[in-house]
Write a structure and sequence with these properties.
This protein is an alpha+beta fold. The chain is built from 2 helices and 7 strands; from the N terminus they run ββαβββββα. A hairpin with a 6-residue loop joins strand 5 and strand 6.
Amino acid sequence: MEGKKVSESSVVMAQVMNPQDANPAGNVHGGVIMRLIDSAAGAVAARHARGNVVTASIDRLDFHNPVYIGDLVTLRASLNFVGRTSMEVGVRVEAENLTTGERRHTSSAYLTMVALGNEGRPREIPPLILENDLQVRRNNEAKARRRMRLEERKKEKACQEDMIQC
């Protein structure tokens, strides 16, 4: 299977936040931002896999700055790592006040997406071609996060089997 470059699947999405996206104080709901993050990551993963994908997990999602009604929210998403059937997508979210031009980094997240075949089971996907030092660094960081996720999953399974030890 021929590999694909990071640039072949990266996406930039933008959307103006409206009153239905926010609470009465004008702050956009975190769940709205989470949905946008998931949509951007899904688009990146589907472009790479050229097929159906599902979200397997989201690593640490912190909200650094608020998003308000009227802000233009821009999401930049790209692949950091590709395994046999899964991939990690990094998403950075920024909000821009369209009146003042002020931009704020509001959140970042790493999502693990899994490619599915026609029968609904995980399927093999093309490897990732890294083209520069930034992509290599992000790939190495993604590998470290993957190791930590797998170790955590192993601990959780052990606790489920023997609750006294946990």
